[in-house]
């Protein structure tokens, strides 16, 4: 069985360098990591992480706590989990999915939390001693990663304005007190006012069926050109169906944008113009940030907002050019 010394000899580096590559890869250059990992692969060397965990009082377990109904956000979380697990695997960490009831069962080194709401802060859901990173904007002082929600609705709103629409309705999720929704509403309203247009907003459950009914309500006695900026692709799907039921012409007298760009935007017909979040990349950074926090004894790691991307498709142009 190959040893650490064998890897060091094969890579022509010191044992200390090999140890740093294994235990603290963020502190080592990419060139050195590639050299050491190549030697490890050629020698079929597997680090003894059980021994290291025992010495460092680590479990090599990260928990991912989901605090919202999973059926309203799938397959979004599959992409997020892909990013998180991909990065954790590099550091020989395992990922454990937990709910609010099971979060305290079993030992772990750190926690990634998503779907947290104001009421969860009030009842002390995060009253734990382990390092925590949140997925989602917050103003409570916790480290977080999110997409730039405000910029996302800004670029979506600007897009339909440039398409010639004057009446542009924002359909938000009925979580008005949550920071991500505050930011998405702010981006829409700011862009509307910048162009001298009047904001018009409604808030509803994150459901395509509910959104379809709202769309029908707004279209039934209205023949004017109208665009919808939606706070999720799920809501956008419902509005697209409402437009189809009234024979609206996408890109001419009707337009719809979504938000997320993970999967639902591509199952609609026409495909939905959406604000895409780089979810896998955000998952990878969530893992990196939490591991840094663990190694820094829980020290704050600050916050990161990822740039959104507008993917233009048939729901605003009438022609699908991107999938």
UniProtKB/TrEMBL annotation:
Where would I find the HTH lacI-type domain in this sequence? 2-56
Supply the name of the protein.
Answer: Transcriptional regulator
InterPro entries, alphabetized: HTH_LacI, LacI/GalR-like_sensor, Lambda_DNA-bd_dom_sf, Peripla_BP_I
Tell me which CDD domains the record gives.
HTH_LacI (cd01392)
Gene3D superfamilies this protein is in? 3.40.50.2300, lambda repressor-like DNA-binding domains
Determine if Cytoplasm is one of this entry's keywords. Answer: no
Has UniProt tagged this entry with the keyword DNA-binding? yes
Which PANTHER family does the entry link to? LACI-RELATED TRANSCRIPTIONAL REPRESSOR, TRANSCRIPTION REGULATOR, MEMBER OF GALR FAMILY
Q: Which Pfam families match?
A: LacI, Peripla_BP_3
Keywords of the record? DNA-binding, Transcription, Transcription regulation
A GO MF label: transcription cis-regulatory region binding
């Amino acid at each position: 069985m190959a040893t650490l010394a064998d890897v060091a000899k094969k890579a022509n580096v010191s044992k200390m360098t090999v140890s740093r590559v294994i235990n603290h890869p963020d502190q080592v250059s990419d060139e050195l990591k590639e050299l050491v990992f190549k030697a490890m692969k050629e020698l079929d060397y597997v680090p003894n992480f059980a021994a290291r965990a025992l010495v460092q009082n680590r479990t090599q377990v990260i928990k991912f706590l989901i605090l919202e109904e999973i059926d309203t956000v799938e397959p979004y979380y599959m992409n997020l989990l892909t990013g998180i697990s991909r990065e954790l695997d590099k550091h020989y960490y395992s990922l454990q999915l937990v709910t609010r009831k099971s979060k305290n069962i079993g030992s772990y080194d750190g926690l990634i939390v998503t779907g947290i709401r104001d009421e969860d802060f009030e009842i002390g859901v995060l009253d734990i001693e382990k390092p925590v990173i949140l997925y989602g904007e917050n103003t409570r002082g916790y480290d977080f990663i999110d997409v730039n929600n405000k910029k996302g609705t800004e670029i979506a709103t600007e897009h339909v304005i440039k398409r010639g629409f004057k009446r542009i309705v924002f359909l938000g999720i009925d979580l008005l007190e949550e920071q991500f929704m505050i930011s998405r509403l702010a981006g829409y309203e700011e862009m509307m006012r910048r162009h001298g247009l009047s904001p018009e907003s409604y808030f509803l459950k994150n459901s395509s069926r509910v959104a379809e009914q709202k769309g029908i309500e707004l279209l039934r006695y209205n023949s004017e050109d109208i665009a919808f900026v939606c706070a999720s692709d799920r809501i956008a799907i419902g509005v697209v169906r409402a437009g189809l039921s009234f024979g609206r012409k996408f890109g001419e007298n009707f337009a719809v944008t979504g938000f997320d760009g993970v999967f639902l935007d591509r199952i609609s017909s026409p495909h939905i113009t959406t604000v895409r979040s780089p979810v896998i990349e955000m998952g990878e950074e969530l893992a990196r940030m939490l591991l840094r926090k663990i190694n820094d004894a829980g020290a704050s790691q600050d916050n990161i907002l990822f740039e959104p991307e507008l993917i233009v498709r048939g729901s605003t142009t009438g022609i699908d050019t991107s999938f």
